[in-house]
Amino acid sequence: MLDALSGSKYFTVLDLKSGYHQVEITEEHKERTAFSVAPLGFYEYNRMAMGLANAPATYQRLMEECLGDLHLHICLVFLDDIIVFSSSFDEHLERVERVLDRLRDCGLKLNPKKCTFAQDRVKYVGHIVSAAGVETDPEKCEKVKNWPVPGHLRRRFVRRFSAIAKPLTDLLPDVLKGKKKKGKDAKGNKSVKWVWGTREEEAFRKLKDCLSSPPVLAFPDYAQSFELHTDASIHGLGAVLYQVQDNQKRVVCFASRGLSRSERNYPAHKLEFLALKWAVTEKFHDYLYGHSFSVLTDNNPMTKGANPSLNPGPLANPFTQQGASEDSQRRWNAFNLRRL
User: Which of 89, 99, 304, 313 is the most buried (most CB within 10 A)?
Assistant: First the structure.
């Protein structure tokens, strides 16, 4: 959805006041919201409350009925959050006025304290949006940066931190080498000697840096060619979509997934073909369909896939549309993603 913001320089974020409570409940449905307050009796909601099973879908439907013809063209709508975008200031004022007029006609009210007008950088649905692209909200990363260092054996894996960091353990082989030492009890046995030295401190710091320093994702420019990097292993599939913008290679999107039980039996070359097929025909289909792109891989058999007669079967489909090119340098980003 955020790809619709490509090329925009000005952004306005609108937030509706007590969003769900602006939706009236029909008389025959009010009884379904009844709750008991002993000894005062039963009460029913007159307006839609948070927690109702159909509340999100109902509210989104209301917003799209109100702004449906403007959605994805001059604004984006996600529940009670609206972002208006444009490439010029004059155009932005006109678009904001159209959205405000439409909200007024529908009887919807805004919360002025949460609205931001005509900015070049705004926060929207948990992301920071600017002309440069989409990035993670620094406030969300701040909690990871400030995660306390474990001070005793019971916190050797740092409560809750290990669950977040686990997917990255294989991505730092040099830093985390030997992290599982023989003789140490993962359950926190008191007989195990607690050691936290320079090596552990450095590994902990780098792990936090990896979690809190994500790249800024570029908006796709469909007038330019894309570059697709893919890789595969017995652990899973990985793909990264790049595009050269302003003489700089930018990441447009990351993707990875695990393997099914049958896919784990595939030979290496077939896994590489599967990674490309999955990336082209499924994950990045909306970006690549009908557009020029090149494929970079470290797998030599992939270069033969451009000839359908040499690669029969369902995995040949991507190659009938676009050939693959070999790159002697391993595609490390895709290589890392496949291990998640």
Answer: 99
